[in-house]
Design goal:
Blueprint: H1 7-18, H2 25-41, E1 50-55, H3 59-73, E2 77-82, H4 91-101, E3 106-107, E4 118-122, H5 134-145, E5 150-153, E6 176-180, H6 192-196, E7 198-202, E8 216-218, E9 242-247, H7 253-265, E10 270-275, E11 290-293, E12 303-306, H8 314-324, E13 330-332, H9 334-341, H10 344-351, E14 357-359, H11 363-370, H12 374-379, H13 381-392, E15 395-398, E16 404-406, E17 412-414, H14 427-440, H15 445-465, H16 478-489
Parallel strand pairs: 1-2, 1-4, 2-3, 4-5, 5-6, 6-7, 8-17, 9-10, 9-12, 10-11, 12-13, 13-14, 14-15
Antiparallel strand pairs: 15-16, 16-17
Helix pairs in contact: 2-3, 3-4, 7-14, 9-11, 11-13, 14-15, 15-16
Length: 510
């Protein structure tokens, strides 16, 4: 489990650890870890490197000062910009300041016009409570404008470690972050993914017994690998379940088709597309899809994906009620969520549904369901996802950068895959279809939600890596890549035939 700890939990762990080691030990370990990471990031030898260290008024600044002294000892040209009153530094940070003063590092009040090999951000850590303003904000903006390798200590200064929001309107944009004791949720969601860059976790040698149990973790294949099974040669289409996608109001049939196509590519045995508007005779790209009128469909025989292109009219509401009266697993997306948000009776039906319910809201849909603003949802994404999971007794995927997956018992995960290529119409429909396909194949709700979210984002990551985005990547392009990544999770086992090589017979050996 890759646990993600709240600031409050980390402070408790740190305080317990401080009772077990001599004063200054944790700061010196942090300084050593930071200097080691900095040296690894340099593209030149230490003696040829020019390193700028920004040190703030707290222990984060002390970590930076300790690292600066070590980097100077390694031969680097180190400049320290101290943004604090030296007399008011905490005791451990003052000791680090003395070590830095005794090194060859140079303290500078104004930044000289030097091409820095590396900048180390030690201005503020997890304790920042108010927006950064004035000269320090200007300093951060100046650093962000430069094309530099920036290593942030613990969290990029100006970022909320719990929720990934900016504390104000400015924060360091780091290329790398070395974070201490435990990983933080704010580094992986909302603005955190952009501000933190590549993340290294350094526990500082703290006794594992001091760590608390954690209800929030970073998602990845380890969370859902147990649900992936090798397909049997004796299997048939009935072995992998049916998916029914309900949507297709006039003018929005594309959303339904995208979701249904994804369910097909993700391995469902049979996929039906039920349209409340005009029904196409067939899907010309994938005639395997069965197109039906939603008005006369039996909703009791398939995993149901409701919402893509559904609309919010009277017929849509009536069909959603019929779906909620079934006993089939449900994926509710898009307009299905908007209909549920507008009707407390539907909310109660969702919460009492006898089978799995999986919700895939974006922040606006989540805000409607919770009766609050989008700003409030985004200000604490984990709390919003958790509240929805409890209220509707469902597994919830709160979409966005660092999607939050939450279940009713309070356990949550943050998804690390995905990129801006997913910021286009139809990608949410693809995710809904993928969720339905995994449920149809017998994946439990938690594994289906974490697996679908990770595969969806990872497919986009691979496509961008290979030059197909992020600009202009469309939702339909995800389908083949999702299929490929799903198969790579568990290769198909098959018989291998090799020619039998017969060596020429020699004389008998007695």
């Amino acid at each position: 489990m890759h646990a993600l700890y709240s600031v409050a939990a980390l402070r408790r762990i740190e305080q317990a650890a401080l009772q077990q080691v001599p004063a200054g030990t944790l700061m010196q370990r942090a300084g050593l870890a930071t200097s080691s990471a900095a040296l690894a990031l340099l593209t030149v030898t230490p003696v040829a490197a020019s390193i700028l260290v920004l040190a703030g008024p707290g222990n984060n600044g002390g970590d930076a000062l300790d690292a600066a002294a070590r980097l100077a000892e390694a031969g680097a040209s180190v400049s320290i910009h101290l943004c604090a009153d030296p007399e008011r530094l905490p005791a451990d940070a003052q000791d680090a300041l003395q070590r830095a003063r005794q090194s060859t590092a140079v303290f500078v009040d104004a930044l000289p016009p030097v091409h820095w090999s590396l900048v180390i951000d030690g201005l503020f850590g997890i304790g920042l409570a108010r927006p950064i303003a004035g000269a320090m904000a200007d300093l951060i903006r100046m650093i962000n404008r430069l094309d530099l390798t920036v290593l942030a200590i613990d969290v990029p200064s100006g970022l909320d470690a719990d929720n990934g929001a900016l504390v104000g309107d400015v924060a360091i944009r780091a290329s790398h972050t070395i974070t201490f004791i435990g990983d933080k949720p704010g580094l992986h969601t909302l603005a955190g993914r952009e501000q933190a860059g590549t993340i290294f976790v350094e526990p500082l040698g703290i006794d594992a017994a001091l760590y608390e149990s954690c209800a929030l973790e970073l998602s990845g294949p380890a969370l859902f690998a147990s649900a992936v099974h090798t397909r049997s040669h004796a299997s048939h289409k009935g072995s992998y379940g049916d998916v029914m996608v309900l949507g297709g109001a006039d003018g929005m049939t594309g959303a339904t088709i995208l979701a249904a196509r994804c369910a097909l590519h993700a391995g469902a045995g049979k996929v039906h597309a039920a349209f409340i508007g005009s029904v196409p005779a067939f899907d010309p790209l994938h005639p395997e899809l069965m197109c039906r009128s939603a008005g006369n469909i039996d909703f009791g025989k398939a995993v149901l994906v409701a919402g893509p292109g559904l609309g919010t009219g009277t017929m849509a509401a009536a069909l959603l009620l019929r779906i909620l009266q079934s006993s089939q697993p449900l994926v509710l997306d898009a307009d299905a969520l908007n209909l549920v948000a507008a009707d407390p009776a539907l909310q109660q039906r969702v919460a009492r549904h006898p089978a799995t319910v999986l919700l895939t809201p974006h922040p606006l849909e989540a805000a409607r369901l919770l009766g609050c603003t989008v700003g409030r949802v985004q200000a604490d994404r984990t709390a919003a996802a958790a509240a929805l999971a409890v209220r509707l007794q469902a597994v919830v995927i709160l979409k966005g950068s660092g999607s939050i997956i939450a279940r009713p018992d309070g356990h949550m995960a943050i998804n690390p895959s995905g990129n801006p290529a997913l910021a286009s119409g139809g990608t949410g429909d693809v995710l809904a279809g993928l969720c339905g396909a995994l449920l149809a194949q017998g994946w439990p709700a938690w594994e289906a939600a974490t697996g679908a979210t990770w595969l969806h984002g990872h497919a986009a990551d691979v496509l961008v890596r290979d030059g197909h985005g992020p600009i202009g990547l469309n939702a339909g392009e995800l389908l083949l890549q999702i299929r490929r990544e799903l198969n790579l999770l568990k290769p198909l086992r098959q018989n291998t035939f090799m020619p039998l090589r017969v060596e020429p017979a020699g004389p008998p050996q007695w």
